[in-house]
């Protein structure tokens, strides 16, 4: 059986409650590490105008909630910081059996830079018919 290489997700801002919510009006900080192109392709959301990534989580997130991502791409050890916003939700008990989580659309200049890097890494994988976390 092939090992699923889902991104390693770590909440970088610790909160006391069970919900991983931002505190004091600041966005949550989430680290995403993609060990290979296959795991990145499953999470990438090219249909978002700014590009984006799917964050597997069962934590309740609100639409338009700000999230700050630290994204480590395949063949890199340095995380790329990028602001984002929740624009997609897949509930824990989705009818189609999809992975629960949220889609984070990249924002700002940093988001454009990350989108360009991801699309350069993925090349034709972006248009592949391989199932992703979202479609």
Describe this structure in words.
With 135 residues, the protein is α+β, with helices and mostly antiparallel strands. The chain has a single domain (26-122), classed as predicted glycosyltransferase like domains (Thrombin, subunit H). Helices cover 16% and strands 29% of the residues. It is built from 2 helices and 6 strands. It has helices spanning 37-43, 108-122, and strands spanning 8-11, 28-33, 52-56, 66-72, 80-90, 101-106. A 6-stranded mixed sheet has the order 1-2-4-5-6-3. Strand 4 (66-72) and strand 5 (80-90) form a beta hairpin. The longest helix is centred in the C-terminal third of the chain and has 15 residues, at 108-122.
Q: How do you describe this structure in short?
A:
By secondary structure, the chain is α+β, with helices and mostly antiparallel strands.
Name the poorly predicted regions.
1-5, 8-22
Structural class: alpha+beta
> In sequence order, what are the helices and strands, one letter per element?
EEHEEEEH
Q: Oligomerization state of this entry?
A: single chain
General form:
globular
First-last Cα distance: 23 Å
Strand % is 25-35%
Q: Report mean pLDDT, rounded to a whole number.
A: 79
| The CATH topology | Thrombin, subunit H
Strands of the widest sheet, in order across it, are 1-2-4-5-6-3
How large is the count of helical segments?
Answer: 2
Q: Just give the CATH class.
A: Mainly Beta
Please give the structural blueprint.
Elements: E1 8-11, E2 28-33, H1 37-43, E3 52-56, E4 66-72, E5 80-90, E6 101-106, H2 108-122
Parallel strand pairs: 2-4
Antiparallel strand pairs: 1-2, 3-6, 4-5, 5-6
